What we know:
This protein is α/β, with parallel strands linked by helices. Helix content is 43%, strand content 22%. The strands form 3 sheets. Strands 8-7-6-9-10 form a 5-stranded parallel sheet, sandwiched between helices. Helix 3 (86-97) packs across helix 4, helix 4 (101-121) packs parallel to helix 6 and helix 8 (214-223) packs parallel to helix 9 (239-246). It is globular.
Amino acid sequence: MSNRLxxxxxxxxxxxxxFPRTESGRYYIxxxxxxxxxxxxxxxxxxxxxxxxxxxxxxxPPWGERSAYNIGQVLYRIAENLESRKGxxxxxxxxxxxxxxxxxxxxxxxxxxxxxxxAGWSDKFQQIFSSVNPVASSHxxxxxxxxxxxxxxxxxxxxxxxxxxxxIAISLCTGNAxxxxxxxxxxxxxxxxxxxxxxxxxxxGVVNILTGKKEELQSHFASHMDVNGLILIGEDFNIxxxxxxxxxxxxxxxxxxxEQLQNNAIESPYTLKSLVEVKTTWHPIEQxxxxxxxY
Length: 295
């Protein structure tokens, strides 16, 4: 009988297109549903969160200025790469979430399909939510959608892989950058997915993934003045407390329940609308010889 100790892989953070260790040096051992030790995971600190926010804020403007068609291409590329590593991800999700292979297969395939779904919406939702508005004065009046900016998302311990992928897909589709705290119970699949993002044409800093404890970081996510929107994935949150913290800069707070994530209720252009701003522009009309002309 061998006395050899298995060397567990260390899963690092994903910040600004690289995989740093947490600046705090802390870690925890991720365990599967049956109690087996699966890997070492970083316990992200407030400083790690600030570093991720700096990266996201810098990366968002050029990402938001990309064509909607190109954003759709990148989302589809992520889906392609997730499909190519489907077997690996199914096995990982099975271990983390304690699911039968058939159920894990369903989750991964739903995650792939969700990426493709929002890739399809990337160049269409603008037409639905933009408009030309009637006005009584000599003006054209247009309302158009723009990215919100930086979206932060927190996965509760029960939300798992599908919630993480959904938050990333919707943030990318709307031209936002994101900082996401992965589920404490499913960190390995989150960082493995970061490896997929890293090779899927996603610019550095557009998606940042942290692992750690929700109780330590959620107040910083909610109160940070450079976060424009906060997504709470799951039900294990004190919504009132987080909304009060978020009120400091009037950031929007949205909660996605596990039921919404599972039954496709989240697959709607109105979910995209919750992460964009509507800008209205007034354009004067010059009267030339009895005819109206814009200038």
